[in-house]
Design goal:
Elements (H helix, E strand, L loop, with lengths): L13 E5 L3 H12 L3 E5 L16 E4 L13 E4 L4 H13 L3 E4 L12 E5 L2 E5 L6 H14 L4 H18 L3 H13 L1 H7 L3 H17 L2 H4 L2 E6 L10 H9 L2 E4 L5 H4 L7 E4 L2 E2 L2 E2 L3 H13 L3 E6 L9 H10 L4 E4 L4 H9 L11 E6 L11 H4 L4 E6 L5 H10 L7 E6 L7 E6 L3 H8 L5 E5 L6 H4 L22 H6 L4
Parallel strand pairs: 1-2, 1-4, 2-3, 4-5, 8-13, 8-14, 9-10, 9-13, 15-16
Antiparallel strand pairs: 6-7, 11-12, 16-19, 17-18, 17-19
Helix pairs in contact: 6-7, 11-12
The structure holds S-adenosyl-L-homocysteine.
S-adenosyl-L-homocysteine binds next to helix 13 and strand 19.
Length: 490
């Protein structure tokens, strides 16, 4: 980050604007809107000043600005659109210790002015750190359509009641939950639609309930969320929303670190991951831990790699919850098969190759593969093997022994969809050797079928490329999800 974003309180403070044209008028107007005393130095004022010249706090001097004018000023703008005079303005401002901005002259700027989305008192400022004001403006236009104008009304409603709530609910978590309920629910809808009185009545009711009777708050909820195979861009909107709401997170080894950066900073994190033969926490314990945390009133996030209902034991974990009457919801995720296949350029089905696709686990019981071979050897289908790396040699040999074409193509995808993705290909007869030679490690997914040959034409993903930079890119926009999560109503 090259610049520090801050919001300045300049009410009643002096702001100097040198220049009388359009750019000068814009700067003067923004400062006046923020309550500053603005003095404009210009021989004459252009048409753009016509309206703002009437506003309180506006002053006009027809002479040129000089060094003494800057004493005690909060900010200065050079907008004379003449390189020499603007440079002189910047020098005088800096000599007086006043932060200065010269229009279109980054070298003379101590600060830049962001594109502003004004939903007063809610203000969103967008900056490209001077790199591309146009890009900032385009993003502003997009946000304009996403954030209804009435959000200002809602922000004011919430702002007026913030202290009242703080007086009644002393605990941070309780307050945050209360505000989320208000802002996500019917009270906000009433405030947004201008029914302030009805909103206030309902608000008083809900607050009294939250303060007096803790019963509605005591039971938490469990979110069983599929986080996809690794690339955080593959999360669903709902997954992201719940990740940012949770009070405590239970996660395991499959998850990319960058996914955990999306969790609220103050949320508790509990590692319950397991490696083969190294069960950090038995499944029953995970379920009872989730149940206990929810019973304590926490919102518990159980974050699972891929999809929770595909080889994820998600079903087992929530059976316990269901039995104990604990509320839960399940969010599907992109399973390793579809994530890895897409990022490896291997369509799982294809008119000329495969009309079916079958997902199996290669995790043998007691070191022996226990698979339905008749089904697996069907022609025109793709077989995807989860947890198949350690048994790869046995698996491919068994295919050949049972009559599969030894030349049938196989791909093994390590760390699919991540920046570290590697794909090793071969045929049934030699892929295990190739994989051993490449030193492929878990997590890795095995794809067997002639669709693998399409990779030669369809491979598009370049691991390690900027677009896949984990955590950087959310929904195509560079948002800092942590900052979004920190948007704090308490
Ligand atoms: N519920 C998960 C699967 C859990 S089983 C899902 O829907 O994807 C764990 C197995 O999934 C691993 O052994 C591996 O075979 C596969 N897997 C998960 N993530 C993967 C990734 N990013 N790359 C390759 N394989 C992956």
């Amino acid at each position: 980050m090259d610049q520090l974003p801050i919001f300045l309180d300049i009410r009643g403070r002096r702001v100097i604007v040198a220049g009388g044209g359009t750019a000068a008028a814009r700067k003067a107007e923004a400062a006046l809107r923020a309550g500053a005393e603005v003095t404009v130095f210009a021989a004459a004022l252009g048409d753009d000043f016509r309206e703002i010249a009437e506003w309180p706090g506006f002053r006009h001097e027809t002479r040129a600005v000089n060094g003494t004018d800057f004493a005690g000023a909060a900010l200065a703008y050079g907008a004379q659109e003449d390189a020499e005079t603007d440079a002189a303005t910047a020098r005088m401002a800096r000599a007086a210790g006043v932060l200065v901005n010269v229009v279109d002259r980054p070298e003379h700027c101590d600060f830049t002015t962001p594109a502003i989305l004004d939903r007063d008192p809610l203000v969103i400022a967008i900056s490209s750190s001077g790199a591309s004001p146009i890009l900032a403006r385009i993003i502003k236009a997009r946000l304009e359509t996403m954030i209804p104008a009435a959000y200002g009304r809602l922000a004011r409603f919430v702002g007026d009641l913030r202290q009242t709530v703080a007086d009644v609910l002393s605990e941070g978590r309780q307050r945050r939950r209360f505000w989320e309920r208000v802002i996500n629910g019917p009270i906000a809808d009433m405030a947004l639609s201008g029914r302030d009185e009805a909103a206030r009545r309902e608000f008083d009711k809900v607050l009294a309930l939250a303060a007096g009777d803790t019963a509605p708050d005591t039971m938490g909820e469990v979110y069983l969320v599929g986080a996809g195979p690794g690339d955080p861009d593959l999360l669903t909107f709902r997954a992201l929303r719940l990740i940012q709401r949770a009070d405590v997170v239970l996660y395991d080894r499959l998850l990319d670190d960058s996914l955990l950066t999306l969790v609220r900073r103050d949320a508790e994190r509990i590692y319950v991951g397991k490696k083969e033969k190294d069960h950090t926490m038995p499944q029953e314990d995970i379920s009872s831990l989730m149940a206990r945390l929810a019973e304590e009133g926490k919102r518990v996030l159980r974050l699972k790699g891929g999809d929770p209902f595909i080889f994820g034991r998600g079903g087992e974990e929530i059976e316990v919850l269901a039995a104990r009457g604990i509320p839960f919801q399940v969010v599907p995720g992109i399973t390793a098969a579809s994530g890895c296949a897409s990022y490896a350029g291997i369509p799982l089905t294809h008119r000329d190759h495969a009309q079916a696709c079958i997902f199996v686990t290669g995790h043998g019981k007691n070191g022996r593969l226990d698979l339905d071979w008749k089904t697996l050897l069907q022609p025109n289908q793709t077989v995807v093997v989860y947890m198949g790396l350690s048994m790869l040699a046995e698996l491919t040999a068994a295919f050949v022994e049972r009559g599969a074409d030894p030349a049938l193509p196989v791909a093994v995808i390590e760390n699919g969809t991540k920046r570290s993705q590697r794909v090793v290909t071969g045929a049934l007869v030699d892929v295990a050797a190739n994989v051993a030679e490449a030193g492929v490690k878990s997590p890795a997914l095995v794809v067997i079928g002639t669709v693998v040959s399409l990779r030669e034409k369809l491979n598009w993903y370049e691991p390690g490329s900027a677009a896949s930079d984990a955590g950087e890119c959310m929904g195509g926009m560079r948002l800092d999800p942590l900052e979004a999560a920190e948007f704090d109503f308490t």
